[in-house]
Amino acid sequence: xxxxxxxxxxxxxxxxxxxxxxxxxxxxxxxxxxxxxxxxxxxxxxxxxxxxxxxxxxxxxxxxxxxxxxxxxxxxxxxxxxxxxxxxxxxxxxxxxxxxxxxxxxxxxxxxxxxxxxxxxxxxxxxxxxxxxxxxxxxxxxxxxxxxxxxxxxxxxxxxxxxxxxxxxxxxxxxxxxxxxxxxxxxxxxxxxxxxxxxxxxxxxxxxxxxxxxxxxxxxxxxxxxxxxxxxxxxxxxxxxxxxxxxxxxxxxxxxxxxxxxxxxxxxxxxxxxxxxxxxxxxxxxxxxxxxxxxxxxxxxxxxxxxxxxxxxxxxxxxxxxxxxxxxxxxxxxxxxxxxxxxxxxxxxxxxxxxxxxxxxxxxxxxxxxxxxxxxxxxxxxxxxxxxxxxxxxxxxxxxxxxxxxxxxxxxxxxxxxxxxxxxxxxxxxxxxxxxxxxxxxxxxxxxxxxxxxx
Length: 455
Known about the structure:
- By secondary structure, this protein is an alpha+beta fold.
- The chain has 4 domains: 9-178, no CATH class; 189-220; 224-344, CBS-domain (Roll); 350-448, Uridine Diphospho-n-acetylenolpyruvylglucosamine Reductase, domain 3 (2-Layer Sandwich), CATH 3.30.465.10.
- 53% of the residues lie in helices and 13% in strands.
- It has 15 helices and 13 strands.
- The strands form 3 sheets. It has a 6-stranded antiparallel beta sheet.
């Protein structure tokens, strides 16, 4: 005899018991789903902060993440057992009522199958909604807080399921070994992940835009070479051993440190600081006493160093000034600690230097100095990247790489809707570029135009 709304009270009691048990099963499955996502999504950095704040539960969560196999085995045991039991109970309790409701409009041979299908669909939707979808979405909101809150009951549940979980893990580990699958959790953090977190913080208003650039520039020190921040040899002001006093007085203005060379710039023997010259002037001494014994020892570095490695050299030698040479021992330029710091500070660290290198015109285009680092160029025109950036450091280097020749005036390159045109060349050196955004339908990205083709 089927139970229906018109049947005795015993059927109502049976239905009530079934529904109560179903609710308990759904809650239990929801708890396990919640904890699975919370432990998987909890970030180690935030857990460490909670532990340092005195919450010992965070340490237990981190320990569980390291040895997560037992938890996931116990979780799957519970979830699968609950799903099977819920299906059996749900079908047995709800099928008669669906059959009774459907029989009011249909009494054919498929009535029993329709009742089964409806009860199966109802129980499935119930578990998906309340035991899977909603708990997992809640766990993603604050995985660390939830993981810390539920760690104690979870550890108790793992102890209960430990014998069966051990057996299942044994079989799983054997299968992984057969197929040579490494199951070690990777906790290393890449620059891309940090950059994404910083960008998310800026979008959320936690960081200001200038602070975002500052943090990103710090990490760029590892990839940028000293050539991208140095003063190139054409702009280096230096003294010779035979420099006359009038020339020294004239050159001192505007700089703090000067290489001292024996005849030519490629024969550096040391450097002098303006403070040394000032002391001589205050003591009414001649500033002409420039010789190998009176100048400071200069730090010589190869142009292959990164800015990060240069900072290590400065720290180790306690110097703040270095001469950059290439593989042929020719001087490429000079670099100071201030140059590195300006690279880190970006456009808001040295507004005067930035204005000298990049100037926006009234029509929205930019005049960009050829020595401008490509990082500043990208930020100015809104480009995420430039092709093969490891092959050049400056805007001039980008043009020479794209054109595959020594550029001349009016040569141009179009890349991702941005046109770079050479305005001025001085002795084969690109002095200035005109950069403008092209209309959306104009130009092909990433290749020189007719004027900028290879020679």
